[in-house]
Design brief:
Keywords: Flavoprotein, FMN, NADP, Oxidoreductase
Radius of gyration: 19 Å
Organism: Proteiniclasticum aestuarii
CATH superfamily: Aldolase class I
InterPro entries: Aldolase_TIM, OxRdtase_FMN_N, YqjM-like
Protein name: NADH:flavin oxidoreductase
Order of helices and strands: EEEHEHEEEHEHHHEHEHEHEHH
Strand content: 15-25%
Mean pLDDT: 95
GO molecular function: FMN binding; NADP binding; NADPH dehydrogenase activity
Largest sheet: 8 strands, parallel, barrel
Distance between the termini: 11 Å
Structural class: alpha/beta
Strand order of the largest sheet: 3-4-5-8-9-10-11-12
Number of domains: 1
Length: about 325
Amino acid sequence: MRKITRPLNVKNLNLKNRIVFPPMATAKALEDGSISEDILSYYDEKTKDGDLALVIVEHSFISEEGRANKNQLSVASDEMVEGLKKLSTLLHKNETLGVMQINHAGLYAKPNDPFLLPAGPSAVPGQNIHVLKREGLEEIIMDFAAAARRCKEAGFDGVEIHSAHGYLLNQFYSPLINKREDAYGGSLTNRIRLHVEIIRAVRKEVGSDYPLFIRLGACDYKEGGTTIEDSVYASSVFAKEGVDLLDISGGHCGYVHPTEKSQGYFREITEALKKAVDIPVLLTGGITDLVAADAILEKNQTDLIGIGRSIYKDSTWLHGALEKLER
């Protein structure tokens, strides 16, 4: 049996193989962020073959202030829970585990309310933003915790905190954006302080047994930005604080590597993390071939493989690829 088809336990989740559908925004929610028939149909189509071990549902906003786009999925109020239950139930019917990704867009926020300014760690030249003070940070921490509780109440198998692709937590993590001179800026320890406080608040809200992931924009690949060494330190801290899985992507370079285009192009990061932490690591990035993905797993460069674009473009791709792999 190839490694990619072997099961893996993550916390108390039994993954039937190593293949994950990573979070990919669909903009298919209703205007208020609630579940639509379009979203349910989309995830049904992606999972009906039953081949995926896990789906990480697209980033969902924790507050109106943190909304990234129109028709983005919401976990910002208790009224959303009943609709979200339909999605978790659908995934389970298709024999797929579901983890919900929760997010605050920070400087990239586009609230439906035109009077709400985007908020971030530091001032940005030429941009009208709200620089977050302590009381604002406390509110964001509580919003993340409440959103995580809603994910659990809605029947999802876990929750993932989004700290990649230039959104709020990634903005605090990266010295390219974070120019603060208080306890949340400067040193790496300070730049991940908000992450740690959110992880602790989420753990308190959902309990010690509920699976908690973090998606980390682990390296900016820009001069003066975050490095692989930074991500090793940060990930070690997150693991000690109770994170159960590291979902690795790019930082302010976005979700692609600026120079490396081969299969699994962030594998240099996940390989370094696997040597530093004892929790599973998920690698996403340019995977279009299961043989190549299996080779990365065999080299112990990651524990799980995220395959996004291939499945997004063709919902039958994975089923065919698995059949071909087993011949």
